[in-house]
Design goal:
The structure is a single chain. The chain is α/β, with parallel strands linked by helices. The chain is built from 19 helices and ten strands. Helices cover about 40% and strands about 15% of the residues. The strands form two sheets. Strands 1, 2, 3, 6, 7, 8, 9 and 10 form an eight-stranded mixed sheet that branches. It has a two-stranded antiparallel ribbon with strand order 4-5. Helix 1 crosses helix 12, helix 15 runs parallel beside helix 16 (about 385-390) and helix 18 runs antiparallel to helix 19. The chain is globular, with a radius of gyration of 22 Å.
Length: about 450
């Protein structure tokens, strides 16, 4: 009984934190337009780590208070969890959280850090364009010397930190990670007598499976796949090879994925983009309706499934028997390569206690912080065995081994990597994605327009 109660509490916390963080549910490819696109040169500020003391983060044996910028304190459980866990294990350290709100958080933060009077020591980084702004304004410091001195293993972040390096320097460490997986309805596969998806499928295999699961019979349609209207649902298939990003300026690599999805639309394998836009059908309602065999979506949807099935909002007879596998991948790409978004921490250039601030950043972003994040059902940037066990043991999490294995990420490619003009590029790609999917432009015309317009931005 106690275990069930704990599981229920974790699910509630997981639902609250993940939905509260749906600014990070960024599969839509839309990001806050907070980067200063005209600033292509990045000022850098070096700092040399002093002797760090793990038992007292001030490094001097004196009491220290760290002012930490966050958002949505009342609805996001892990802020308080992190504060209490850190203070309990670091004598003399007080964490003073300052809630800047989730609406335009990065813009407000940039304003707060722009004056000489700021008192923030540590700031939370919500998105890459905002990160770019803080780096360009010299508001946060590079962490490379600290990372080298303390032997922090960046490989544990599955490649995510490589994508936010600015001129060879890293200014944040991630502590939270949301990534994309493939959800599927087991009952539909069972009824069709078709084997479940696996954790190692190429796009050709995925397309064939979606077609095998499709039933176009009027009144009893089954859609083999479903794609939300976000640009991410189509374009970001193309970055899983680790060779391309949305910042490239040349987008012919996207053509096969547009062809796959539009051909599926034409053959009734998935709902049409135009219909989804007109009807406003949300991906969660589509999957919960029980007529979608597979849905590519972010890990935040796990919380929605668990919570809504337990509350009765979702009909368990339609979608209660569900599972997950790893994202499909291109031929020759490692299974477990996926898209993701990260939430990070940075040390401000205004802090009087950079060593103490770094210790906090390192702890929260490390394995100890990962355990704290997972205890409330959130996905930490470092997925340790302990964190994995905490999440997969939640009451309502699929019990099959494939679903548990789907949580293991081999390569994490950011939906939005660092770039000084990333907001403008996003806007162009969003616009022409809609034109292609709505049939207003051919694939070739849309790709050519992307190439032309983004090249102009990159030439600025």
């Amino acid at each position: 009984m106690k275990k069930k109660l704990i599981g229920t509490m974790l699910v509630a916390a997981m639902m609250t934190t993940l939905l509260a963080g749906c600014g990070n549910e960024s599969g839509n490819g839309n990001v806050n337009n907070s980067s200063d696109s005209g600033q292509n040169s990045v000022q850098q500020s070096d700092t040399t780590p002093a002797g760090n003391d793990n038992n007292n983060a001030s490094g001097s044996g004196e009491a220290v208070t760290l002012k930490w910028a966050i958002w949505d304190q009342e609805t996001t459980a892990y802020w308080k969890d992190i504060k209490e866990a850190y203070e309990n294990t670091h004598a003399g350290v007080t964490i003073d959280m300052v809630d800047l709100g989730s609406s335009d958080y990065m813009t407000v933060l940039a304003t707060e850090l722009s004056g000489d009077g700021t008192e923030f020591d540590v700031v939370t980084i919500k998105d890459v364009p905002g990160y770019a702004t803080l780096v360009q304004k010299n508001s946060i410091i590079p962490l490379d010397d600290y990372i080298a001195a303390d032997g922090v293993d960046l490989a544990k972040y599955a490649g995510a930190t490589d994508q936010v390096v600015v001129d060879g320097k890293l200014y944040e460490l991630p502590f939270r990670n949301d990534f994309w997986v493939l959800f599927y309805n087991k009952d539909l596969f069972d009824a069709a007598g078709v084997d479940y998806p696996t954790n190692d499928m190429t796009f050709d295999e995925y397309d064939a499976l979606a077609r095998k699961m499709t039933d176009t019979t009027f009144g009893s349609q089954i859609y083999g796949a479903h794609y939300h209207t976000w640009r991410s649902d189509v374009q970001l298939f193309g970055v899983l090879d680790g060779q391309h990003t949305i910042l490239d300026g040349e987008y012919s690599f996207l053509i096969p994925y547009y062809e796959m999805v539009l051909n599926q639309e034409a053959d009734g394998v998935c709902r049409k983009y135009a219909d989804l836009k007109t009807e406003g059908l949300h991906y969660s309602a589509a999957f919960a309706g029980g007529d979608v065999a597979m849905l590519n979506m972010g890990s935040w949807f796990i919380a929605t499934m668990i919570s809504n099935l337990q509350s009765g909002e979702y009909d368990a007879s339609l979608c209660g028997n569900w599972g997950m596998v790893k994202y499909p991948h291109a031929e020759g790409v490692e299974a477990g390569s996926t898209l993701g978004t990260i939430t990070g921490l940075a040390v401000t250039s205004a802090t009087d206690t950079p060593d103490a601030a770094w210790e906090f950043v390192k702890w929260v972003s490390g394995e100890e912080g990962a355990a704290v994040m997972a205890s409330s059902g959130n996905f930490p940037a470092i997925m340790t065995d302990e964190a994995m066990n905490l999440i997969t043991s939640l009451d309502g999490f699929p019990t099959d081994e494939a679903s548990k294995e789907a949580m293991n990420v081999s390569n994490l490619y950011l939906e939005v990597p660092y770039g000084p003009n990333v907001s403008e590029i996003n806007s162009v790609l969003d616009s022409y994605h809609g034109s292609i999917m709505a049939g207003e432009m051919s694939i070739d015309e849309g790709i050519e327009a992307m190439n032309t317009e983004v090249s102009k931005i990159l030439a600025q």
